[in-house]
Amino acid sequence: MKTIKKVCFCLFLCLGCIGCSPSTSLDFWTITYDQIERYLNESGNLGNDWHIGLQEKDLAVDKDYPELTIHKYGDQQECVLSFQMDAKDKPYIAYQYTMETEAALGRTKQKSLELTSTDAGFTKYDMKYTEMILEDGNFISQDTASGILQVQEDQTLQFDSIPLLKESMENLNAMIDDIEKTFDIDYTKTSFVNVPALAQKTNIPETEEIPEETADNIAYFSKPDINAKGFSLVTCLEINKTNPSSAIFSEFNVERQSDEFSYNISLEKQSQENCYALVFPFDSDFSYIAYIDETQAYLYDASFTVEKMVQDVAQGGSQAVFVLSTENESYKE
Predict the structure, then answer these.
(1) DSSP percent split of the chain into helix, strand, coil, nearest 5
(2) 215 pairs with which residues across the strands?
(3) Global pTM?
(4) Which range is the signal sequence, renumbered to this chain (predicted)?
(5) Is the separation of the CB atoms in 81 and 10 below 8 Å?
(6) Which residue(s) pair with 6 in the sheet?
């Protein structure tokens, strides 16, 4: 099957006056809207490579900052740029880059990186990376990571290691160049902090795997266990770093590259440190307690007492139903 790669770029600049610092200039947004409006009035259309929607100023929440959306199509790719108002009329800039490639077993792997500004000067960004596996458009699995990017006073970038950052910045920079050339805009003469352009002067390493330090979840995996049908199964417990009481318990089929089951569960603290009860949905037949530290997770049948579990862990965990480790492989392709 021919590999089809689809790339999507989104740059959302959501800008409003209310709540803005008086020293914050939004001239780049106004110039972009006015130049596109002038171009469309003079040229009529842009052909099949572009699709642009401009909100009428009379309908805008703030008539000085009407919304606009730009789509730029290329060879198996799409670029989208939107200027919008958020619910609280606070200005922010967000970039998004999304790409799709073929994955194992004829499935689709969709990768997306979003950067959202968190300060009035548009120099600090939260980064959110999402990697999904789809089959015929249906969701199979997902991994996520988060990080921070900041523009320093010397115009260099400081950033956490996260997948897709280098490719995102390269393609978003090309998109902004096309917008400048097509609509006769020079962002260097505005207050626009062109993060993708600054990234071209920065050595950003290419990262394929999600680094442990930026992954949203701490993932514990078992070693593969062969079932009666000959499939290799890996048990996984993923604990949310932001909300440690929230977790996912799943069983992954290595050959089929899909989950046999996956449950969103809760972790309830028990009387001793590192001890938890795994609380499953009502339709689950599972019932476990667990001893979980930074690198290991020992799962026991719920009939075990906490004291007996702690004693067994100290002796090597021989009676555990599952022994999971952050150092074991996930076997996901």
Answers:
(1) 20, 40, 40
(2) 145
(3) 0.81
(4) 1-25
(5) yes
(6) 100
Which helix (H) or strand (E) covers residue 18, if one does? none
pLDDT at 86 over 70: no
DSSP structure class, residue 57:
G
What's the rounded Cα separation, in Å, for the pair 309 and 292? Answer: 11
The residues, ordered by sequence, that sit 6+ positions from 142 with a Cβ below 8 Å of its Cβ are 130, 131, 132, 133
**Hunting for tokens 């610092």 — which residue is that?**
21
Instruction: Using DSSP, state whether 80 is helix, strand or coil.
Output: strand
Nearest-angstrom CA–CA distance, 37 and 94: 22
Residue 284 identity = S
Classify the phi-psi angles of 29: left when phi > 0, otherwise alpha if psi is within -120 to 50, otherwise beta.
alpha
| Separation between Cα atoms, residue 310 and residue 307, nearest integer Å | 5
Task: Kindly calculate the radius of gyration of the chain based on its CA atoms and give it in whole angstroms.
Answer: 24
d(CA 124, CA 146): 14
**Residue 208 DSSP SS3:** coil
- Residue 274's φ and ψ, nearest 5 degrees, are 70, 10
Q: How far does Cα 73 stand from its chain's mean position?
A: 23
**How far is the C-alpha of 187 from the C-alpha of 262, rounded, in Å?**
47
Tell me the CA distances in angstroms from 142 to 29, 152, 172, one per residue in order.
Answer: 35, 32, 24
CA atoms of 174 and 176, how far apart (whole Å): 6
Report pLDDT digits (tens) over 138-195: 888 889 999 999 999 999 999 999 999 999 999 899 989 998 999 999 999 999 899 9
Type and span of the H or E element at 218: strand 217-221
Nearest to 166 by CA among 127, 199, 129, 198: 199
- Residue 275 corresponds to which tokens in the numbers above? 């001890």
Tell me how far the alpha carbon of residue 299 is from its chain's centroid. 30
Cα separations (Å) of 217 from 97, 121, 206, 250? 22, 31, 21, 14
